[in-house]
Amino acid sequence: MPSTIVLVADQQELHAPLTRRLEDQSHSVFVVKDIPEALLYLRDPACTASVVVFHMVLRRQQDAFTLTEICSFRPYLQVILLADKARGTVFDGQTPHANIRILHRSIGPQELLHVVQDAVGAADAQMGSKEEDSEVDLDAEADENGPTVFTTPFLMRVGMADVPVLLHGETGVGKEVMARRLCAYSPRANKPFLKLNCAALPSELVESELFGYEKGAFTGAAVDKPGKFEIAQGGTILLDEIGDMDIRLQAKLLQVLQDGEVQPLGSRKTVKLNVRVLAATHRDLRRAIEVGTFREDLYYRLNVVNIIIPPLRERRDEIIPLAEKLLKRHMRPGMVEPVLSEPFKELMLQYDWPGNVRELENLMRRLLVYQSEKMIFGDLERAIEHSRTKARPVLPVAVETAEPVAAAAPQVAPAIASITDLAEVARQAEAKLLLEALEHTHWNRRQAAARLNLDYKAFLYKLQKLGLVGKKDKTTVPQTV
Ligand SMILES: Nc1ncnc2c1ncn2[C@@H]1O[C@H](COP(=O)(O)OP(=O)(O)OP(=O)(O)O)[C@@H](O)[C@H]1O
Predict the structure, then answer these.
(1) Range among 47-51, 190-194, 227-231, 470-474 rated most confident
(2) Phi and psi, residue 443, nearest 5°
(3) What percent of the chain has pLDDT over 70?
(4) Which segments constitute the Sigma-54 factor interaction domain (predicted)?
(5) If I label 436, which of 231, 277, 326, 356 is the partner at 20 to 30 A Cα–Cα?
């Protein structure tokens, strides 16, 4: 069975031959240049590696602790370490975890290949026994890496499909975790995975980050800079908070997706792209389309597969297992793992978790710091009391799902009456009118202004105010869409 193998090596001549031979056997090899980066990757919930080979000597005892900890929450993971002596000196006389093999650093390439193949077999055997269990009742499978409403076979199919995926869900539900997981199951698993948060930056910055620029393209562009699309070549890009992307930029993104090529700002060259696009949002994009703040054509481009991740309060059976997993994730070596008491678990099950898994994670981190439930018991009680007296947060409208398994997920409530602010309603209505006029006139602004019986300057001012055009950057407004 093809596996994902992490190879930790800082020298090309060490990892290149091994990578080639493993890739010849259809395995995906992910090369990491240093130990801290490798440990970080292995701790990531989206990591699906079954074998990790440290082609460098582990010297810090702290790293050995971390590795042991990773092995305990990733029971399939097989670890191969090279050491100065074929005995684990870094483990300071302690017996290493059963899945850790320590070899002498002078081992030859052929012998190392055999050990890696053997480790792949051992990981497969352990995963196989888990898969047999899951065949009995796939839906009930307790998947440690994501909401149990999505089975591993479903996610593998979507991951392998290499099509755009739109992820919907409230903040903190695990959209990024899901995106990383889809990537890990895809043929692009050992290629770059980049994320850009479209809401966190002003639109000009999002544009230059995504598409890159050439030296001199604008004030401050002192050197050429490739955009994320270019850096992610061969891999995957996650456009987080796509619902917050400026409408003008949406047009440009659409063009890039349609043409499969990108033109850095200020440049004449175009770069052919081979990047899988995943997008995530907590917004109701259907509504955004209605009010003219999201382009329908872009929506259909991104929405080949649509996954709605339900909020944590709609998958309460996952709260306790997730809490226990998050406690383990954040424990430092030598820490005593707090045992969650029954009354505390009961309280956790009553709470609605508006911040979803992120909020649960923060609570578990606090618990590890305080080492006492008592200190946060009252906070949780007050939060429950508060949520009883307040209205539920507004949720995104349920949208159709492309897969039967996804359709089985609890549907989220419609976002009725989410816009209570009159000024916002007026702003959105105005934006819709302006955009319609621009669409009709193929983005000829003079004609669009005339169509709306508006003075041209007043029209431009409105475009600016609504964020539909940059102050100086008129050239990037699409003339044809
Ligand atoms: N199934 C899971 N197992 C373990 N941790 C999880 C899981 N889902 C989410 N998390 C953790 O919860 C936090 C929030 O997850 P993530 O960033 O994926 O959510 P999000 O929906 O993308 O959030 P936002 O909308 O704010 O971008 C992260 O620290 C992540 O590691």
Answers:
(1) 227-231
(2) 65, 30
(3) 80
(4) 157-369
(5) 277
Whether 370 is covered by a domain: the verdict is yes
pLDDT at 23 exceeding the cut of 60:
yes
What residue owns the CA closest to ligand 1's atom 16? 174
Tell me which amino acid residue 331 is. Answer: M
The residue segments making up the domain with residue 196 are 152-308
243 lines ligand 1 (CB under 6 A): no
Instruction: State in Å: Cα 177 to ligand 1 middle.
Output: 6
How far apart CA 277 and CA 166 sit, in angstroms, is 9
**Lowest mean pLDDT across 26-35, 188-197, 204-213, 441-450:** 441-450
Mutation test of ligand 1: which of 358, 362, 363, 364 has the most ligand atoms closer than 8 Å to its C-beta? 358
Tens digits of residue pLDDT in 49-75: 889 999 888 888 888 888 887 887 677
- Regarding the beta carbon of 176 and ligand 1, being less than 6 Å apart is answered yes
Residues 6 or more apart whose CB falls under 8 angstroms from that of 442 comprise 479, 480, 481
**Closest atom, ligand 1, to C-alpha of 146:** 1
Tokens at residue 114, please? Answer: 């055999």
The answer to whether residue 402 sits within a structural domain is no
467 pLDDT more than 80: no
ipTM over 0.85: yes
Does 291 lie in the same domain as 174? yes
Q: Whose CA is nearest to atom 7 of ligand 1?
A: 174
Any atom of ligand 1 within 6 Å of the Cβ of 352: no
12-24 vs 109-136: helix axis angle to the nearest 10?
Answer: 50
Residue 340 pLDDT: 94
161 lies in the same domain as 123: no
Residue 242 — very low, low, confident or very high, per pLDDT cuts 50/70/90? very high
Please tell me if the CB atom of residue 207 comes closer than 6 angstroms to any atom of ligand 1. Answer: no
C-alpha 395 – ligand 1 centre gap (Å): 17
d(CA 258, CA 5): 34
Q: Supply the pLDDT for residue 392.
A: 45
